Amino acid sequence: MIVNADLHVHSCFSMASSKDMLIDNIALQAKFKGLQLLGTGDAFHPEWLKIIENSTKYSGDGIYSKNDCDFVLTTEIEGSKRIHHLIIIPTMEIAKEMANNLVSVNKYKDGRPRTKMNGAEIMDLAKDYDCLIGPAHAFTPWTGMYKSYASVYDCYEKKPDFLELGLSADTNMADKIKELQDIPFLSNSDAHSPWPHRLGREFNQINLEDISFSSLKSAIKNNKIKANYGLVPNLGKYHMTGCTKCYQIVDPIIAKENKMKCRCGGTIKKGVDFRISEIATWKKPHHPKNRPPYIHLMPLAEIISMVYDKGVTTKTVQSKWKELINQFENEIEVLINVPLNKISKINEDLTPAIDSFRKKTLYVSPGGGGKYGEISFDEKIQDHTVKKEKIITLDNF
C-alpha cells in the first residue's frame, strides 16, 4: 500500500508551536491534506504522551489512530553543538523509558528536549531501543548536522537510518555528496502548526506492507520510499547565504571575508546551497539507482494566496481552498493528480498557477538569512541561482 507520510511535526508543547497542535486538529487537517501517517513529535514530553493516550486508539505495533489518521511516535532531540536528531520510536512504553534515561535540562518544559549527548551517544540510545534515527533538516545553518560536521560519520560514527533533507535542500543537492549514496532521504514538514500550508508541506510517499512501526522500519531500511515531495529548495529560508537582519543575499566569499557580518550590522548565515558546495563530492548529482524521485510542490493555500495577492489565512484564500477540498477530497490530489480542466470548473484563476507549478515554469527568487523565497510567473525557475544584482559582491558590499 502506498502511504503519504509526514514523520516530523511538533506538539503544542514545543517552543514556537501553535496551541492548536493537538491530536484532534492534526488528524483532521491531515485528512484535508491527504496524509495517512504522521509522526507525533515530542514523544518524550509526559503531558503530550498523556494527550496521545487519551486522544487515540492503539492499533498495535506502534500505531496510534485517530479517525482516518495514524500516528507513529517520534521526537526531535537537540544534542551537543545544537544539532537536531529525529527519532522514530516503537511504542509508548519505550518512549517513556527513553525519556527517563535521557539526561536533559528541559524535557519536562519543552517538547524538543536538549541534552549534552553527542550524535553517537544519542544513536546508541536509540539503537538500544530498536528505534530509527537520523539527522533532522541536516543542512540548515542553525541546527543541521552538516553545519558542524563535514561527514555524517563524524557525527554518528555509524550510518544513520535516514537523513532528513529539510526545506532548503532536495535530492538533487544532497546527491552531490558521495557518503549519502546508500542513506535513504526523508522529506518532512517540521510543522509547528496543524494547518495544511504547514502540515505536509514536505512528505514522503512510502510503500508499506501495512501501517505499523515494523513495516515503516522495513520500508526505510529497504528503500521502499517511492517519492519525496517538498518545496523548491530555493524557497527555503536558508537556501542562500544571507543576512538574518536585512535578509540581503550575500556572496559567501564576501561574507567570510567580513567575518559573517553584514553592512547593516546583522549576522550573515551560510546558506544550504553554499554549504553543500563545500562538502560536495561532485558538481552534479549522482543519483543511486534506488533513489526515488523528488517532486517539487507548494502548499495549495500559498498558491491561492499568490494568485489573489491575499494572505494565506484570509477569508478569500481559505474559502477558495475549501471549495477545492470539498470537490476533490484533499490537497495532495489537487496539486498532483486532478486534471486541470476539472480544476478550471471550480476556479479558472488557479489553473495557470497549478499548471505552471507542475511544469516548473515558475521563477523563484531564492530565500536566505531566515526569509522564505518568492515566486512569480514571469520567468522560468533557475535552479539554485539568483540574479547577480540581488547579491552583495565585492563591488557593492
Give a summary of the structure in a few sentences.
This protein is α/β, with parallel strands linked by helices. It has helices at residues 23-33, 46-55, 92-101, 119-128, 152-156, 171-174, 213-221, 252-257, 272-279, 300-308, 315-328, 331-336, 340-346, 351-359; strands at residues 2-6, 37-39, 57-60, 63-66, 69-78, 84-89, 132-135, 163-164, 185-186, 203-207, 225-230, 242-243, 249-250, 268-269, 294-296, 363-365, 374-376, 391-392.
Describe the protein in words.
- The chain is of the alpha/beta class.
- The protein contains 14 helices and 18 strands.
- Strands 1, 2, 3, 4, 5, 6, 7, 10, 11 and 15 form a ten-stranded mixed beta sheet that branches.
- Helix 10 (300-308) crosses helix 11.
- The longest helix has 14 residues, at 315-328.
- It is globular, with a radius of gyration of 21 Å.
- It starts with a strand and ends in a 5-residue tail after the last strand.
- The model is unreliable at 380-391 (pLDDT under 50).
> What is the tally of beta strands?
18
Poorly predicted runs are 380-391
Q: Note the beta-strand portion.
A: 15-25%
**What is the gyration radius calculated from CA atoms?**
21 Å
Mean pLDDT: 93
Shape: globular
Helix content: 25-40%
What structural category do the secondary elements indicate? Answer: alpha/beta
How widely separated are the two ends? 54 Å
Second-tier CATH architecture of the domain at 2-233:
Alpha-Beta Barrel
| Largest beta-sheet details | 10 strands, mixed
The CATH homologous superfamily name of the domain at 2-233 equals Metal-dependent hydrolases
CATH overall fold name of the domain at 2-233: TIM Barrel
Q: Work out the helix count.
A: 14
CATH class of the domain at 2-233: Alpha Beta
